[in-house]
Fold:
Amino acid sequence: MDANTGHFEAVTFCPGYIRGVSIVGHYAVIGLSKPRHKTFQGLPLDERLAKEKIEARCGLYVIDLKTGSTPHWLNIEGVVSELYDVITLPGVQRPSMIGFRNDQIRRIITFDQ
Structure:
């Protein structure tokens, strides 16, 4: 987005509702949420997902702002279907997540090899 002209240029397509962005160098770390089907319907994202023949995803996507490529991504499945914001933690290599009520989050998040 050019702040001076207001011109928007799409860099890539993200398969979900964007819910938070953190810029790190020339990368954007983007949080995606699945739609709340009774709340958000009939929006342009629905048409684009159908055109691309993919389902909305919940997760984190790292977008290279120079090329539009997605060198890294993390899909979150299970009971978590929405993210509300994204932050980056410079220098942190092994962050952990804790649940407010129990350790369910620890058991749900998995990483493919």
Q: What stands out?
A: The mean pLDDT is 85.
